[in-house]
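I am writing to request your help with a piece of structural work I have in hand. The matter concerns a single protein, recorded as an amino acid sequence and a row of backbone structure tokens. Could you please explain, in whatever detail you think fit, how the structure tokens follow from the sequence? Thank you for your consideration; the sequence and its tokens are set out here:
>
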Amino acid sequence: MSAKDRMEAIEADITTLALDAIVNAANEALIRGGGVDGAIRRKAGPDVEKQLRRIGRCPTGEAVVTRGGALPAKHIIHTVAPIFGNTRQEEQRELLAGCYTSTLARADENGIRTLAFPCIGTGIYGWPADIAAKIAFGAVTEHLARCDVQQKVVFCCFNTADRERYARLIDAI
């Protein structure tokens, strides 16, 4: 199965997806934020909050795994994007790509075969959607090309413009 066949772009509420894992755009302190983080954690419930308190923190560009709590997804992989606009643009891009590669590495380690990413970093962290999508797509495509496991990656978008952006990238393979 090609990388193209293993990716999909949808417009949906990520908290409703019954996959092995959904990805959360978290912060380094792993405390509840707004946006997708707040939505996921409200619906996941107190068990996920307890797990995150035990973990304590997650460095930018890295990822940690919890159970899915009350969500239909079995796991949540929490990752932390860099804040856009820092003068070290190349480092910032590498850290954002790291969100995807680290998440996929945690998925491999935990036997996760189906997972959905939101548009990481494009909310209050300020990443322009086009730049973030290209970085995300590149990191995921590279991982799937070298991965022996048949993972399915869903880019779960909150709006039509983001879904179309990812769909164009997938169609261009």
The domain at 4-171 is CATH 3.40.220.10 (Leucine Aminopeptidase, subunit E; domain 1). The chain has five helices and six strands.
